[in-house]
Write a structure and sequence with these properties.
single chain, about 260 residues, alpha/beta, seven-stranded parallel β-barrel
Length: about 260
Amino acid sequence: MTALVSPRVALLADLGESFGVYRMGDDDALLDVVTSANVACGFHAGDPRVMAATVAACVERGVEVGAHPGFGDLVGFGRRALEVTPDQLRADLLYQLGALDAFARTHGTRVRHVTPHGAFGNLVMSEPRYAGAMAGALAAYDPAIAVVTLDGPLAVAARAAGLPVALLALADRAYTEAGTLVRRSEPGAVLTGAVEVARRAVRMVTEGLVRAATGRDIAVTADAILLHGDTPGAVGLARAVRAALLAAGVRIVPLASVLAAPATA
């Protein structure tokens, strides 16, 4: 049975992932494509100056600001698993969220959503006790903050905590039949062909389906499509996805608009 889908979707990108003199991605170009930004908070990438500049650019372009917390692993770009307790994860999350929200407040806005990065995200999206720690911390900080995540333990924990939840789809990543992402270390995990990625995005939103790596179609809910800023040809991919969605009659809207309106069949 085809999943409930929406004729509107938010477009998100991971931004602010430069650090000092090291440049990552083309944030300026992506800000013309997306409706919401996942801003690195200085742990896996970013630094105070990059965070400040990224928030300022988002506000100037009318792009919603969201937090993209990760493990404290600049060398590994937050993609290496670290041993942490739920309490340690909670403290690291709040530290990063508070730092980014300080920049957001001084620019007249707030952090509107949180979506975890890399190995941090793998942990909270797969382990219920870590998902509960994250959801509890966010609910205590701001019960109106949205959690953007794949379906699974984090979505369940966030809903139980009374937080808004938007389900994330990744058109440029391969899926397993279980609905999880194929590990980046495996061949074919990251898709770089603009035509293929754009078609997948349209199908995710309009049909609620995606072709898994095994060749079987699986159900997926796409409240938001993530556009990776560090994928080869990222800007071209992002523009192709946006153009294909608009051509298919999909409305591209801020995440807040997606959360405010019920999905339609």
